[in-house]
Amino acid sequence: MRAGLRAVGLSLALMGATPAIVLAQAPGQLLVSGIRAYQQLEFAEAAGLLRRALAAPTPGLDTPNRSQALAYLGAAELFRNRPDSAVAVFTRLVRSDPRYRLDRLIFPPEVTTVFDAARRRTPAAALGFVPVRTIRSGQPDYPIDVFGSTYHDVRVEIAQADGRTLRTVYAGPVGDSLRLEWDGRGAEDEPLAEGRYVLRVTSLDSTGATGRTVRIPLDVRIAGVDTVPHPAPPADSVLLPERSAAGPALEALIGSLAIGTAIAVLPSALSSDVDLSPTRFAVGAAVTVAGFSGFFARRPGRPIPENMAANERVRADWRARVEGVARQNRDRMRRALLEVRAGTAQIIEAESP
Amino acid sequence: MRVTLTAALLALSAGPMAAQSGAIRAVVHGVWVTGDRPAGLRERSGLGLGGEAAFAVGPAALAVGYQEGSLDESGGPSTDFVEGHVFFVLRPLRWAALGFGPHVRSFVEPGGTQRWLLWEAHLQAATEVLGPTIEAYAEGWVVVSADVEVAEPFDGGRGLEGGLKVAVGRLPVALRLRYRLERLDLGDGTRRETVEQVGLAVGIGRR
Predict the structure, then answer these.
(1) Which of B179, B194, B200 should one mutate to test binding to chain A, selecting the residue with the greatest count of A CBs within 10 A?
(2) Would you say the ipTM is above 0.90?
(3) Domains, chain A, ranges and CATH?
(4) Where residue A272 falls among pLDDT bands split at 50, 70, 90?
(5) What's the pTM value of the predicted model, to 2 decimals?
(6) E strands within chain B?
């Protein structure tokens, strides 16, 4: 603002020409000429020059000079006895630069009074923000300054790129200024994922109707997360076979057949000259039958419920550890470092009823 | 005594970390004793009742057994018998065990008591038939030394045993079905003693 004023003052000092000879000059020169005409009380000429300066095609005046031009134009219109036009110009000034205040050393009270009335009727907010900042999610480290044209209600929101509101950072009145701290969180206090979002400040009029809105695009990037790797699934070497192999079944069958046969046959070989009790055949048969039972009970490919249950316990333990790590990582993600890059503000005026 | 002392020392040296287990069971045996002697064949049979116990520390175990009963003889007087054993057992493999110890048997007859003291070396092999629930086993042994109170000198002896060991569900109760045959040769083959037993044991302790 002061730099703009200095530029205008310097230009005025350097220019000795009359406003008439600067008709084809650049917007900055038109502004200087307009202010000079205003100071020479040539209000009609000043208004013409300033309107031309404001109407200049892109790039036109920058914000401080544009505000300066509107201020002098409003004052000139007021002194031309065109109060409605003055109010319209001041309203336009407030909407384009809600923080702007007329310099009471330059403009007389009758001008500042009209401007202040226009300002009070025009609720608008400007935003002050940090272009690039790295914050830790969950900690209110991203400053948002809200400047009001007048005391009014505002709604400060984080929204998705398509406009859907994720989080309301603040909803309430703002006077001259208000400092807010955003913690990088979105809907339901969840950390934002990487992507493009919008910081949106909406001014509400006295009836609560939506007025002017300032939208600032935010690019959010995760700058650092120290997550823990998930535990590896149980290795095959840890798991028990869930279906029986051929070995144990054959071992049971062959072993018991051999023992059963030995019980039945060997006594006769050991004591062939004695009439032995036939009970050995019963015992040998019992062993053999048990062997066949064991073979069929442990036949190859048969599911082994106890091993399946043991493996399920191992897998359940692994799943529990995975869930624990996931929970831990979610918690760490909630405290991730976020790099927030703010873009250029866009102003959306509410449509007139 | 020496065997018992050795087992005790081994049990102590195994330390507190070694797995300890024990078993005790009641046994009923059908017993057939056949004596083929120069005087003629003598066959007796009867029933024996007794008990067995084992205490294991790691791979070493001490197994003891006792039974007594009565044998009937066709046309002859009945004979009471008492027998017992103390074996030191070493199980170097899950499926194999070695045992050594004294086995004593006495026959009490009207004419006097006949005592057999046999020092036996055993080898047992076992296989799981149905997981850890049912196990079949076979055991063979030789008599390495004997003191038998008969007129004939001792020539040699051997025996075998086989059967099933069954664990009952999740209980510590175990059953055992077995057939056992012992053969002693005496007097340069002029006398042969055969003892046959079929037994059923029920006890506490896995196997």
Answers:
(1) B179
(2) no
(3) 2-120 (1.25.40.10), 125-223+338-348 (2.60.40.4070), 246-334 (no CATH)
(4) confident
(5) 0.52
(6) 20-37, 40-57, 60-73, 76-93, 96-109, 112-130, 134-148, 154-167, 173-186, 191-204
